[in-house]
C-alpha cells in the first residue's frame, strides 16, 4: 500500500453555504457526524480522517461511511491497528499543518494511546509556549447501553477531563453532533470528542449545516424551578425522561445539557442552580472520582450558600462495567433520579 | 536447568553461533551467549498436505515430518466438531440468543493444531476469536458461551482449564502468556504458554513487547499468529509491509515459521516442535499460520463492504477440513463409518449447545458487587444495598401488579 | 541473558520477628521501603521484584538498593524497558501464583501501561468471578517538588482512584511506608502504591518491623477543633506546617493523613468533619477532576448539614506541571492553605 | 509521485522481488507489490574508518563510499565543537547551574552525522540525549539549555529550526516523526523526518508502532538508533536477544543497517543514503549505530554501580573524534593551524555557553497560564488572578521588609 493515491478524485466538495440551508430532514447523530466530517473534509484540504476501519467499511458505527470513496485514500484511510500509533502519527501530522480527525474504535481501546494523549497531545502547546499547536480531534464512541461485551462500554471522560490541555465535549443530539464536531475540527486545541454510542441512531429533524451554541457552553434543555439536573451525552435523554416523570409528580426539573465537560460552563450552571437551589448530576461512569465529583465540588464551592441540599450524584456503581445481561442494573435510570431527589429533605 | 535443548524441525535447525563479529566490539555488546540465529522464514508457507489432499515432499515441508494417521484422524474429528459447534453458535447468534459471536470458520486447522500441541499443564491464552480452541480443550459450551450471551465476562474457571479469559483488548494477552511462562520457568515447572494473536493485533505495541520480553527472558512461550488476512475490514496489506509476519522473529533472535494455516498437519508439526522446544528450555517461537476468515468479523459486520465474494470463494477451495478429509480418505483411515460417527458426535454437540443456549440463565445482579475486591468495602456495600432495595421494590411492584391483574 | 540464575544465593532471609523489634533507628521513607521489600522477599518466595533499573543499580531512587545482590536475578531483576510489558508480564506471573512488586520509574512513565492497568489488572478478579486474583503491587514514585524536568512530576492518582478494582494508597512517613508496603504485598488485590518522591529522604525514628494502622484507614495526625485538613503523600508535611502556622494565629487545625485513596475512609474523615464542621483537602495534582473533587463531593454528601462552609480544595492549578524553576509557584503551600481558610466566613 | 527511487549504498542494493511464493496463495496476501526485501544486516558493523584511523576496504564497507575530506573536515569541526559544548554543560551541571544534563560524550559521530545528513526543510526528532544535535542544527546554547536549566519545557521554536521538542517519554517521538513525514508526503513536499532512538527505547511499544506505520505508509522517515549499550543501568543484553537491532528492519520490510556508531564516515554515508532514499520516495530505513555512553546517564546517575571502569576505558580507545582526527591528519587535511582554529572556536562557544548560563533568566510565573489553551478559560483566569495576587503580596511583603531594614 502506498499512501499517495494519484487516482483519488481531485474534486473539491463545497460544503453547503450557510445562507442556503438544506431543507430540514430527519437525521441521526451518526448521520450528523458523518455530514460534519464530509463538510469539514470538503472545506479544508488539511483535514484528514484515519484510524481503524474508517476507510471502505466506514467505521464499525458507520460514522465515516462513504468518505473514503468520496475523498480518496489520501484524505480518509485505514491505518494499521495501533492506537498509540494513530495518536502519535496524528501529532506529527498536526505539527506539519494537517488537522487530523482520528477515531478510537471503542472507549477502552483508546487506553493504549494514553501516554501519547496525556504526555504529548495535551501538553504540546504548553511545552512550546504556544509555538506548536495540535489541532487534532479524537473521536471516541463511549459509554454503554448497547449490550456490548466487556471493554466496549467504558465511560472514560474523567481521565481526559482531569488532563490539562485537553478540551472534552460530548453532544447529545444530532444538531449538536454536527455543529460541535465542525467546531472541534476548527479548534486549534486538541479535542476529545466523546460520542454517546447508545444514542448514535437517535433522530431529530434538522437542516444541515446547523450552528448550535458554541461547544464550550452548557444549554438549558428544559426549564424548571425545583432542581437543576445536569446531564451529558448518553444521560441527557434519561434526564429529560426524569423531568417528565417529575412533572407528573409535581416536581419542576430544569435539565441542563453540559455539552462541554472541559471547560465546565460555570456561568450557565451557576445561574440555574441559583434559581433552583438544588442540583444533581448524572453520568454512566463509576461514581468514585467520576466527572460528577468535579461538578458537585465546584457547584458546591461556588453556590454553597444558595444550596438547600447537597449536590446529588446519580451515576454508575463503583464496579467494572457489567456484561450485557446485567448492564440495565448499572445504568442510571429516570427512576433512580427521582428516587435520589426523594432522599433530599424538601 | 539441566534440560536438553529441544528440536525444532530438522531442516530449520538453529544455527550455531558462527556469525562474524565486529573486530574490537566486545561480544556482549550485541549478542548474548545463547542467542540462536535461525534462518529467515521461507516466504512459501511450510506445508505437509497439498490442497489436493496429497502429501507434500521436498523443500516446502522444511523437513517437518507428517504426523501419524491416528493423530491426523484425531485432529480431523476435533475440526469437524469445532466446525459444527461454530456453525451452531453462528446460527444461535443470528437468532438473537447471543450478544455477539466472532466465528473461526476456516481457521480450524490453526485453532485445533495449537490446542492439540499442548499438555494439560500448559496454558492457553486465547482471543475472542478462539472459542473453538476452548471447546477443544474441554470447556463446556455453556461455560464458553456465557461470555457471548452476555451473562458474565468469563464463564469458566481459568485455573481449572489452564485457559485465560478470552481477551478482547488486542495483543494484551500475549504479555500475560509471557509472564505466566516466565513464572513457571522460575518455579522450575514444566509449563508452556501458548498465545494466539491475529494479524491485525501484531501491529499493537503490546505484541512487540511480548515478543521481546519472551526472547530476552527465554520464556517458554509459543506465539501462534493466525493471519486470516483481515482485521475487521482492514486487509493485511494495510497492516504490514513485511514479506511475512514470521520475518519479525529474526529481530527478536527467535525462530520464526511461516506456515500454511489451512494445513493442520503442518500447523501441528510446527507448533508441536515449538512447544517441545519451549518445554526443554529452548525459549520462545513465533509461528504465522496463513489462513482466511470465511465469515464476517462478527455477526454485526458486513464484509461485502470491503471484500469481493470471489476472494471468499477462492479460499473456500482451500478449506482445511476438506483437505484433511481427502488425505485421510486416500490413506484409508476415513471410512464412511468413521465419518458418520464423527458427524453424529457433531450433531450431539450441536444439540447440546442449542439446548444449553435455549435455557435462560439465572443471574443475580447483586453478584455485580461481589468480585471487585477481595475484601469488602463499606461504600460498595452501600451501593449493593441500594440495588438490593431497588430490586426488592421492583419485585414488590410486580407482585402487586400480578395481584391486581 | 537467561532468567534462571543457578548461582543465586539459596539462603532464605528471615524477616525480623515481630516480637523482637530492632532498636529504633533513624530511617527515611526510601530506607523503609527498601526494608519492606527485603523482608517481603525473605518471607515469601513468591514475591519477585522487577522493572527498569531495579537490579544492580537499585532503582533511580535506590528503593531496591542491594536487593539484586542479596536475592539474585531470579527474585529481583532488570526487565526490558517497556511499562506495558512490565505490567502485562506481572499479570501473567500473578496468574501463576507469584506476587510481583513492580516499579514504574516515574509517574508519567506509567502511562504506556494504562491499558494493562485499567482493562486487565483492575478487572481480572471481576471478569472471572473471583477465580483469578492478581496480587500485584505497582510502585510509582509520584508528584513534584524535586525540580524534575517535564513528565517527572505528575500526580496521577485520580486516574487510578477512578478505576474500580484498584486499591490506591500512599504513605507520608517512614513507618507507614514500611507497614503499608508490607500490607500491599500481602493483599490479594492489585495495589497502586504511590510514593511521594519529594519525601523519599524524610527521616523518622522507627524500629522495624513496624505495624501501623491498616492501610485502608485514614489517621488523625494532629488534633484540632476548627477545621479538618485532609492531606496525603507529599502534602501531609505541608498540612502539618499549615497547622503550626494556624495555631500561631489561634486556629485549631486537625490534620488527617488519608493514606488510602481508594477506598476512602469515610468513617474517620466523617467523624473529624462532624467535630470541626469545616473541611479542606490538599493535593498537588490539578484541581479540575482531581482527587480532591471526590473528597469534597462525598464529604459534602455525607456531612452537608454538619458543614458550616463549602469544602475547600488547595491544589495544583489546571495546567501541566511546570518546569523546575516555576514549580514553587504551582505547589500548594502552607500559606495557601491559610489564605484559603481565610476565604471562609467564620 | 514521479520520482525515481533512491540508492542506498551500492552493495546493499534492494533485491528485486524474486522471492518464491506459495502456490495457491494470492500474491496480495502476504506481500504488497512494492515490498523491498533487503538482505539481513551484517553482524559486523559497517565501517569506513578503522580505529587506527586508516580507511577500511572490502566487505565491511558494505560498498559505501568514503565521504570527501572536506565533508569529513566539516564533520570533525562540528564534533569538536559539540564535545566542547557537552563538556562545558556537564561542568555547569556539576556546578548546579542546570537541573539535569544527559551527556552525549562518545556519541558525537552518530549525533553529528545525522544532523549533517539533513536538508534545512527536513525535520529532526531528538530525545533528551541529543542536545548536541540541536546545537549542530543551529539552536543557540541558551535556547537549548533553557530546558535543562528548568526555565521552561522547550526553549526554542520548533518551527524555526524544524526540530521537535526533545522528547523524554521514550520512543514516543518516533511516531511524531512518522506522522510529520507522512503529512509532508501527502502534501508532496520534499521533507524527510529523522528520529533518534536509544537502544533501551526500542523495547517500547511505540518504537514498533513507528517502524510499522512508517513502512506501511512508506513514509520518508529515517530511524537512527544510537545503541550506546545502556538504558541507564540496564545493559543491552537485558534489552534484546537479537543479533542486532537492525535485524528488526526485515520484519517491517525496510532496509536495516548495523553501523559502527563511532565511525562518523560510516554513519554519514549510511544516513545520507537513507535520507536520499526517503526523499526520492523509497520509504523508511532503520539504522543502528553501535556506540557507547562514556558519561553517566545524567549527572544524578552513578555508573560505578553497574559497569566496570575497564569497559569504559576500552571504549575510550574507540573514541570517534580521535579516530577521525587520525584519518584527517594522515590525509593532510588537519594541520595544526586548522586544529588550532577549531579549538579556538570551541573555546568561544564554551565561553558563550558559560556566559549565557551565568545570567539568571527572567521568568514570569504568570506565563504558566498562557499557553495551555488557544482560547481563554474563565476558570484558568481565576487561577491566574490568584497567583498574581499572591505574587503581588509577596512583593509587597519584601518591599516592606526592605523598608524596615
Ligand atoms: C486495543 C484494541 N483496539 C481495537 C479493538 C477493536 N477490534 C476488535 S477485533 C479488531 C480486529 C482484530 O484483527 P486481528 O488481530 O487480525 O484478529 P481477527 O479478528 O482477524 O481474528 C479490532 C480492531 C480491540 N478489541 N482492542
Ligand atoms: C516511557 C518512559 N519510561 C521510562 C523513562 C525513564 N528513562 C529515562 S531515560 C531511560 C533509559 C533510556 O535508555 P536508551 O533508550 O538506551 O537511551 P539513552 O539514555 O541510553 O540515550 C529511562 C528508563 C522514560 N523517560 N520514559
Ligand atoms: Mg485477522
Ligand atoms: Mg542507551
UniProtKB/TrEMBL annotation, chains A, C:
The gene is pdhB. InterPro entries: THDP-binding, Transketo_C/PFOR_II, Transketolase-like_Pyr-bd, Transketolase_C. It comes from the Bacteria. Residues 27-202 form the Transketolase-like pyrimidine-binding domain. Gene3D superfamilies: 3.40.50.920, 3.40.50.970. Pfam families: Transket_pyr, Transketolase_C. PANTHER family: 2-OXOISOVALERATE DEHYDROGENASE SUBUNIT BETA, MITOCHONDRIAL (PTHR42980:SF1), 2-OXOISOVALERATE DEHYDROGENASE SUBUNIT BETA-RELATED (PTHR42980). Its EC number is 1.2.4.4. GO terms for molecular function: branched-chain 2-oxo acid dehydrogenase activity; magnesium ion binding. One of its GO terms (biological process) is response to nutrient. This is 3-methyl-2-oxobutanoate dehydrogenase (2-methylpropanoyl-transferring). The lineage of its organism: Bacteria, Bacillati, Actinomycetota, Actinomycetes, Micrococcales. It comes from Subtercola lobariae.
TrEMBL record, chains B, D:
GO terms for biological process: branched-chain amino acid catabolic process. Residues 76-343 form the Dehydrogenase E1 component domain. Signal peptide: none annotated. It comes from the Bacteria. The keyword Oxidoreductase applies. Pfam families: E1_dh (PF00676). Its cofactor is thiamine diphosphate. PANTHER family: 2-OXOISOVALERATE DEHYDROGENASE SUBUNIT ALPHA, MITOCHONDRIAL. This is Pyruvate dehydrogenase E1 component subunit alpha. It comes from Subtercola lobariae. The gene is pdhA.
